[in-house]
């Protein structure tokens, strides 16, 4: 399996088989021992500056060549017809410089198999997508056309991306998806000598532990595609960039301070669709994914980009076990909890003197489900390692988040006040409000304390839900609480004065 064990969190395959696999959106990376820390520190001083200087020189050189090649061409010209003549002849040179920039950073790119011609396969399907360093595939495929958001072009690498004659995605255009698919179809079926279209069908980065759902956009043309796999067979995985894990700068720093890294690109045989697959792009996408998963030796999992958004939303709000929200949803469905609405009822009642901390048998009994492998897995996600018990209020809050996706967040907040009110009086003290604010409002402890003091103007030592809501309605930073669509995501956490 390509990809290390980054997380203890697993899930089930959609066919019901007990195939426990890893959460694809989590990557853990730490310098484990003193030797690694000392070596990284030394290479940061003596190796990193040299590599950065050389890489910058090569990138600027490639950018300069791209500027020359694009001189006199508008974006409309790039979308209207493929490059020819001397402009096209610059591509191999730019690709060579691009590969050299990776080599200067200590990463050797090896290629297996043969890249098919555009006539054989107008579309290249790349997976798994796990890193910003996957951009090396552009150079390895002789600058195939990428699919890129138009707003991503407003930076210094825009010229290099433009040189691939990309398919633009206009985020603000409500018809963007249909227009993108239409342009892919036109490119793939054109008689002109366009570059091959390069697609990452997963649509987001994973940790390579599995292949998630392939978007069908690149399969609508119904033409043959060539699957291409990317592996990073390194002792330390410093390239994986997921929703939960190290940031891009840390990964780049750790990669550039490795003595040597490697990337393996493999061109698989061209996949020719059947008539059924031509009629059903989703079927075509699933079957190509199966072929690539078999070549990689990894399972498949029906996660999507929307699942990433859900996880990001849950993390932003501080919902317990946010990174495992997709697995929790699956397990609740298998236990029938998503249909019973039992958790919503329990949330509306609060704990009312019931035990807060439960063992695995008590947890299943409280939910009215059998104690089996599914309830055990659900328990394991929420268990506190120090005690071996689950805070039942944490679970109910997470279940509420999943059960009422379109309800105003204020409704979930009202249930949270009841769940974490251990006195069952409706009077919430500062330490309890901190716990609530961290879990539902995404506040840090200091901001939660400041908010409590602003609500508790009489210095009673407690506040009520009604008092907080009255305060929140007067503050623009809490407007997101009253939006009747839980997919709304504020750009920043509330700033407390």
Task: Describe the structure in brief.
The protein has 2 domains: 10-303, no CATH class; 307-482, no CATH class. Helix content is 45%, strand content 9%.
Q: If you average the pLDDT, what whole number results?
A: 85
Content-based structural category? alpha/beta
Approximate strand percentage: 5-15%
Q: Sheet with the most strands?
A: 5 strands, mixed
**Span between N and C termini?**
50 Å
Low-confidence stretches: 1-21, 485-497
Q: What is the count of DSSP helices, taking H or I runs of 4+ residues? A: 22
Quaternary structure state of the chains depicted: single chain
The helix content is 40-55%
- Rg measurement, Å: 26 Å
How many structural domains are formed by the residues?
Answer: 2
> Care to count the β-strands?
13
Describe the global form: elongated
Arrangement of strands in the largest sheet:
3-9-8-4-7
Keywords: Acyltransferase, Lipid biosynthesis, Lipid metabolism, Membrane, Phospholipid biosynthesis, Phospholipid metabolism, Transferase, Transmembrane, Transmembrane helix
Subcellular location: Membrane
Organism: Vanessa tameamea
InterPro entries: EF-hand-dom_pair (IPR011992), EF_hand_dom (IPR002048), LPCAT1-like (IPR045252), Plipid/glycerol_acylTrfase (IPR002123)
If you had to describe this structure to a student in words, what would you say it looks like?
- The protein is built from 22 helices and 13 strands.
- The chain has a five-stranded mixed β-sheet with strand order 3-9-8-4-7.
- The longest helix is centred in the N-terminal third of the chain and has 23 residues, at 48-70.
- It is elongated.
- The chain has 497 residues and is of the alpha/beta class.
- Strand 5, helix 7 and strand 6 (167-169) form a beta-alpha-beta unit.
- The two termini are 50 Å apart.
- 39% of the residues are buried.
- 45% of the residues lie in helices and 9% in strands.
- The chain crosses the membrane at residues 41-73.
- It holds the Pfam family Acyltransferase.
- Pathway: Lipid metabolism; phospholipid metabolism; Phospholipid metabolism.
């Amino acid at each position: 399996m390509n990809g290390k064990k980054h997380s203890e969190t697993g899930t089930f395959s959609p066919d019901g088989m007990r195939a426990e696999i890893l959460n694809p959106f989590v990557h853990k990376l730490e310098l484990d021992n003193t030797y690694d820390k000392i070596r990284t520190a030394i290479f940061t001083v003596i190796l990193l500056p040299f590599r950065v200087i050389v890489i910058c020189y090569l990138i600027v050189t490639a950018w300069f060549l791209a500027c020359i090649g694009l001189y006199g061409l508008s974006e409309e010209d790039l979308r209207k017809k493929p490059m020819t003549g001397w402009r096209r002849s610059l591509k191999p040179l730019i690709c060579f410089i691009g590969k050299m920039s990776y080599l200067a950073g200590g990463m050797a790119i090896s290629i297996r198999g043969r890249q098919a011609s555009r006539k054989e396969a107008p579309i290249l399907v790349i997976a798994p997508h796990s890193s910003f360093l996957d951009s090396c595939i552009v150079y390895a495929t002789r600058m195939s056309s990428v699919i890129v958001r138009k707003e991503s072009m407003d930076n210094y690498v825009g010229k290099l991306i433009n040189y691939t004659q990309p398919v633009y995605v206009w985020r603000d255009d409500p018809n963007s998806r249909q227009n993108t698919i239409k342009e892919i179809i036109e490119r793939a079926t054109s008689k002109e000598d366009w570059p091959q279209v390069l697609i990452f069908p997963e649509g987001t980065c994973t940790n390579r532990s599995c292949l998630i759902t392939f978007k069908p956009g690149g399969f609508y043309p119904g033409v043959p595609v060539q699957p291409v796999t990317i592996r990073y067979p390194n002792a330390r995985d410093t390239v994986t960039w997921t929703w939960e894990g190290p940031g891009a700068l840390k990964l780049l720093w750790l990669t550039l301070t490795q003595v040597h890294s490697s990337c393996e690109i493999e061109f698989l045989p061209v996949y020719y669709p059947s008539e059924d697959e031509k009629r059903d792009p989703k079927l075509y996408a699933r079957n190509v994914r199966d072929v690539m998963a078999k070549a990689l030796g990894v399972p498949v999992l029906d996660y999507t980009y929307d699942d990433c958004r859900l996880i990001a939303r849950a993390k932003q709000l501080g919902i317990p076990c946010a990174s495992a929200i997709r697995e929790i949803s699956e397990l609740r469905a298998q236990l029938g909890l998503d249909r019973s609405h039992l958790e919503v009822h329990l949330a509306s009642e609060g704990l009312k003197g019931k035990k807060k901390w439960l063992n695995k048998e008590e947890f299943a009994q409280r939910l009215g489900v059998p104690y089996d492998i599914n309830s055990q897995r659900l328990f394991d996600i929420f268990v506190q390692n120090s005690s071996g018990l689950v805070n039942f209020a944490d679970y109910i809050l997470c279940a509420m988040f999943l059960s009422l996706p379109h309800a105003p967040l204020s409704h979930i907040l009202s249930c949270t006040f009841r769940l974490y009110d251990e006195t069952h009086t409706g009077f919430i003290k500062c330490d309890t409000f901190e716990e609530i604010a961290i879990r539902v409002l995404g506040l840090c402890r200091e901001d939660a304390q400041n908010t409590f003091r602003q609500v508790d103007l009489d210095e009673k030592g407690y506040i009520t839900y009604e008092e907080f809501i009255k305060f929140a309605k007067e503050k623009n930073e809490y407007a997101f609480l009253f939006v009747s669509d839980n997919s709304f995501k504020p750009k920043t956490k509330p700033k407390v004065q």
